[in-house]
Specification:
Layout: H1 33-40, H2 69-83, H3 89-92, H4 101-115, H5 119-134, H6 154-169, H7 184-201, H8 204-209, H9 222-226, E1 252-255, E2 273-276, E3 283-288, E4 301-305, E5 317-319, E6 331-335, H10 338-343, H11 347-369, E7 374-376, E8 382-383, H12 384-395, E9 400-401, E10 404-405, E11 414-425, E12 428-445, E13 459-468, E14 474-475, H13 477-482, H14 496-503, E15 508-510, E16 518-524, E17 528-534, H15 536-539, H16 544-551, E18 555-559, H17 570-580, E19 585-589, H18 592-597, E20 608-613, E21 619-623, E22 628-640, E23 657-669
Parallel strand pairs: 3-16, 4-7, 6-15, 7-11, 8-11, 17-18, 18-19
Antiparallel strand pairs: 1-2, 4-22, 5-6, 9-10, 11-12, 12-13, 14-15, 16-17, 19-20, 20-21, 22-23
Helix pairs in contact: 2-6, 4-5, 4-6, 5-6, 11-12
Biased composition (Basic residues): 9-21
Region (Disordered): 1-33
C-alpha cells in the first residue's frame, strides 16, 4: 500500500499546552518594601555594608534594624507615606485602633531605653520586630487593601510601632537648649549642631552676598570646636538633617515642635520628629540657640515691632533696564531703599541714626515690659550691611557707639529684618538682587556643664543667617494704582504698542534671585521654634509650607511690603491655615510707609501695621497710634499635651507643647523732635 503524501497538507501549529501554575508570587506592581529600604540605606542600615567587598544576598545591607533612632524614623515614615497604608481606620480611628494601652506603654519603655543609655535592652525587642518586618520585604509597597472591611497588611502595624518607638526615643530634642545628661541621642545631636555651625557657616554672609561680617561667627569657640576628637563620629548631615545613614538627597528628618490636631497625614503620628522632603526641594536648618535659660525660667516673649520705613516715596520703585529687545520680555522692577538715604548719605550715618532711635525705643519698652527679647522689622526695611551693624550694636552689651557706652540697655536676643542684598555668582560681576530675611541671635554655648548666666564656661556666640525669598512679587495694574506708583512702573515709551501693553494690564515682576530655597528654624528660650516668611511665601503652598506644617513652629513671623492689614485680606486668610495645621501662631508685620501709600485721598488714615492670629481662634489687629514709632507686644505660653493620630499622648516631662498667645500690646512713642529716625512719623 502506497504511503500517503502529506506534503500538501497544512501543518498544524505546535501545541503550547496549558500554562503550568506556579507557586511563585507575581511580581509586584511598583517598588517593594525591601527595595525602598535598600534605596534609603545605600551603605546599609548602620553604615557598615560595602557592596564591593561584601557581595551577599540582596537584602543583606538592611538585615539589621537601624540603631540610630532618626534613621529608623525616616525609614518607617517613608514606607508609610509612600504606601498610604497609614490611612486605614485601624490606625487613625482611636476608638477602633489596633494598638492597646499596653502597646503604647511598651513603646514608651523601649523608646526610653534608647534615649537613656540602655540600648542593649531595646535592641533585643527591636531585632524581633525588624525580623518580622523583613518577612515582608518582597511585598509590593502599593499592594495594600485599605477598605474599611479588610484588615491592613501586617507590616503596616509593625512600621507604625517602630515609628513611634523612634519618635519617643528622640523626645525633647526639639526644645532642649542643652543635652540631657546620660542621653546619647541628645549628646550626639548637640555636639553635631555645634560643630556643623562652626564648620559650615563661618563667613557665610560674605560667600552669599559679598558682605564681610562685622565680626566672624564663633570667634570665641573656634579652637574648641575645630579640634574635637570625635569629629568623625558626628552626624554628617546636620544642620539639614539629623539622620546618620539616610542621605538628605532622599529624605530629611528634623525635630518638630507641634503635632497637627486636624487632617490625616503622616505628620500627625509623631511628636518629636518630622519627615521632610529632600534637601534639593527645600533645605531646612534647625538652629538650637543653646541659650542659658533653664527649664524653670520665665516663659513668654516680649517683641518690639518697628514698622520702618515710616514713609516710602514712589521713586523707591524703579523699573529695571530690559536685558534684551524681545517684545515679550517680562517687565521687572526693583525696590530702592531711599528711606535709608533720607536718614543719611553714608552707611555710617544710617547706622548711627537707626541705632540711636532704636535705643530710645528699647529704653521705653524695657521700662514698660521689663525686658525686650527681640526686634522685628518688615520686608526690605534695611540693607544687609546696615542690618548687620545695627544688630551688632543692639545685641552686644556695652557696645561703643559715638564714644558712649550703653550698659543700661540689656542686649536683645533676637533681631529679624527684611533686607536687600546682592548675590555674587561666577561670571556675574554685577551680582543679582536678593530680597531676604536677616535673622541674628545671641547664642551661649557651654563646655559640658549645666548652663547658667554666671557659668564661666559659657561662650557667647553671635550667629546670623539670610533666608532668601522664594517667590517674586507680581504687581498688576490694580496694585500699581492702589499703591500710587504708576508714575514709576508704567510704560515710559508712548508708542501705541507700549500703551496697549499697559491698557491690557501688563504686570511687573520683582527683580530678585529666588534660586536658594531654605527654611530656617530658631529655638529660643529653650522652648520656642520660630520661623520666618517673606510676603508671597506666606500665600504660596509650595515648597516651604510643606516643611512648616511638618515641623510646626510655635511662631511664624511673616514680613510684608503691603498695605493696611485686615482680617479679610490675603495675609490674614493664609495665616489661618497655619493656625489650623500645624497649630502655629502667626505674626504679620508690614511697614507704615507702605500702609500710607495706599491711603485713598482725604480718607482717614488706617495705621493697622499687622495682624496676630493663633490656633485658639484669636485674631487681633495691630494698630499703630498717632505719634507712635513701634508696638511692644507680650506673648504668653499655654501648655498643651497633644495627641498623635494613633492616640499616643506626649511625654509630660519632655514633649509638652507650648502655644503662644497675645497677652498685651503697648504703643512706644518716638521722639520726633530729637531723633531723625522719627521725623517721618
Amino acid at each position: 500500500m502506497a504511503e500517503k503524501d502529506n506534503s500538501d497538507k497544512k501543518k498544524k501549529p505546535r501545541s503550547r499546552g496549558k500554562l503550568k501554575k506556579t507557586t511563585r508570587d507575581p511580581q509586584p506592581d511598583g517598588p517593594t518594601i525591601g527595595g525602598l529600604l535598600l534605596s534609603l540605606f545605600p551603605m546599609g542600615t548602620n553604615g557598615t555594608h560595602d557592596v564591593a567587598s561584601q557581595p551577599r544576598e540582596r537584602y543583606a545591607p538592611i538585615s539589621a534594624v537601624p540603631q540610630w533612632a532618626p534613621d529608623l524614623f525616616a525609614a518607617m515614615a517613608t514606607l508609610l507615606e509612600q504606601s498610604g497604608a497609614y490611612t486605614h481606620p485601624d490606625f487613625f480611628d482611636v476608638t477602633e485602633s489596633v494598638f492597646s494601652f499596653e502597646d503604647q506603654c511598651d513603646w514608651k519603655t523601649v523608646g526610653a531605653q534608647l534615649r537613656e543609655g540602655s540600648p542593649q535592652l531595646a535592641f533585643k525587642k527591636l531585632d524581633k520586630d525588624w525580623e518580622s518586618l523583613a518577612s515582608y520585604f518582597d511585598e509590593g509597597l502599593l499592594e495594600t487593601k485599605l477598605t474599611r472591611g479588610s484588615d491592613p497588611p501586617k507590616w503596616v502595624q509593625l512600621a507604625i510601632k517602630l515609628l513611634h518607638i523612634a519618635d519617643i526615643a528622640c523626645a525633647g530634642v526639639e526644645s532642649r537648649a542643652f543635652p540631657i545628661v546620660d542621653n546619647p541621642i541628645h549628646q550626639l545631636i548637640y555636639a553635631s549642631q555645634q560643630h556643623s555651625y562652626y564648620k559650615d557657616h563661618i563667613g557665610r554672609p560674605e560667600r552669599i552676598s559679598g558682605i564681610k561680617d562685622l565680626e566672624p561667627d564663633f570667634e570665641e569657640t573656634e579652637d574648641t570646636l575645630s579640634t574635637r576628637e570625635f569629629e568623625n563620629e558626628l552626624l554628617p548631615y546636620v544642620p539639614s538633617s539629623i539622620c546618620r545613614h539616610v542621605p538628605p538627597y532622599l529624605v530629611c528628618v528634623q525635630p518638630k515642635a507641634l503635632t497637627p490636631t486636624v487632617g490625616q497625614t503622616i505628620r500627625s503620628f509623631s511628636h518629636s520628629l518630622a519627615l521632610l522632603p529632600p534637601k534639593g526641594v527645600v533645605n531646612t536648618f534647625w538652629f538650637n540657640t543653646f541659650t542659658g535659660y533653664s527649664p524653670e525660667s520665665k516663659g513668654g516673649l516680649n517683641l518690639l515691632l518697628v514698622p520702618y520705613p515710616y514713609e516710602i516715596s514712589a521713586t523707591s520703585f524703579q523699573p529695571c533696564r530690559p536685558q534684551s529687545t524681545r517684545p515679550d520680555e517680562k517687565l521687572k522692577y526693583t525696590t530702592d531703599l531711599t528711606w535709608l538715604y533720607d536718614l543719611a548719605d553714608t552707611e555710617d550715618g544710617q547706622v548711627h541714626h537707626l541705632t540711636s532711635g532704636l535705643r530710645d525705643l528699647l529704653r521705653i519698652a524695657n521700662a514698660e515690659l521689663g525686658h525686650i527679647d527681640g526686634i522685628i522689622f518688615p520686608e526690605l526695611a534695611l540693607s544687609h550691611a546696615v542690618a548687620e551693624r545695627v544688630s551688632h550694636r543692639l545685641m552686644v552689651s556695652g557696645c561703643e557707639d559715638d564714644g558712649q557706652r550703653e550698659k543700661e540697655i540689656e542686649p536683645i536676643s533676637l533681631f529679624v529684618s527684611g533686607v536687600k542684598s546682592r548675590r555674587f555668582v561666577k561670571d556675574d560681576e554685577k551680582g543679582r538682587n536678593i530680597n531676604a530675611v536677616y535673622t541674628r541671635v545671641n547664642l551661649h554655648w557651654h563646655n559640658g556643664e549645666q548652663p547658667s548666666d554666671t557659668n564661666p564656661n559659657m561662650k557667647y556666640v553671635s550667629f546670623r543667617r539670610l533666608q532668601v525669598k522664594h517667590h517674586r512679587w507680581r504687581l498688576d495694574k490694580s496694585q500699581i494704582m492702589r499703591y500710587n506708583i504708576a508714575s514709576q512702573l508704567q510704560i515710559n515709551d508712548n508708542t501705541n504698542e507700549d500703551l496697549g501693553r499697559w491698557l491690557r494690564g501688563e504686570v511687573w515682576w520683582e527683580d530678585t534671585d529666588v534660586s536658594e530655597r531654605e527654611c530656617l528654624f530658631w529655638i529660643l528660650k529653650n522652648r520656642y521654634a520660630i520661623s520666618t516668611l517673606i510676603c508671597e511665601d506666606l500665600a504660596r503652598i509650595d515648597p516651604v509650607q510643606q516643611v512648616l506644617r511638618a515641623i510646626g513652629p510655635n511662631l511664624v513671623i511673616s514680613l510684608l511690603l503691603d498695605g493696611a492689614q485686615a482680617s479679610h485680606r490675603w495675609g490674614s486668610r493664609y495665616a489661618t491655615s497655619l493656625c489650623d495645621d500645624p497649630g502655629s501662631s502667626v505674626l504679620i508685620l508690614t511697614s507704615l510707609g507702605m500702609v500710607r501709600r495706599e491711603q485713598i485721598y482725604n480718607a482717614p488714615e488706617n495705621r493697622t501695621i499687622g495682624i496676630w492670629k493663633d490656633c485658639f481662634g484669636n485674631s487681633e489687629p495691630l494698630t499703630l497710634p498717632q505719634n507712635a514709632a513701634a508696638l511692644a507686644i507680650s506673648l504668653s505660653e499655654a501648655m498643651v499635651r497633644e495627641e498623635s493620630a494613633s492616640g499616643r499622648e506626649q511625654l509630660k516631662h519632655l514633649e509638652t507643647s507650648r502655644k503662644l498667645i497675645l497677652s498685651g500690646i503697648r504703643a512706644i512713642k518716638g521722639f520726633s523732635g530729637s531723633k531723625k529716625l522719627f521725623q517721618k512719623l
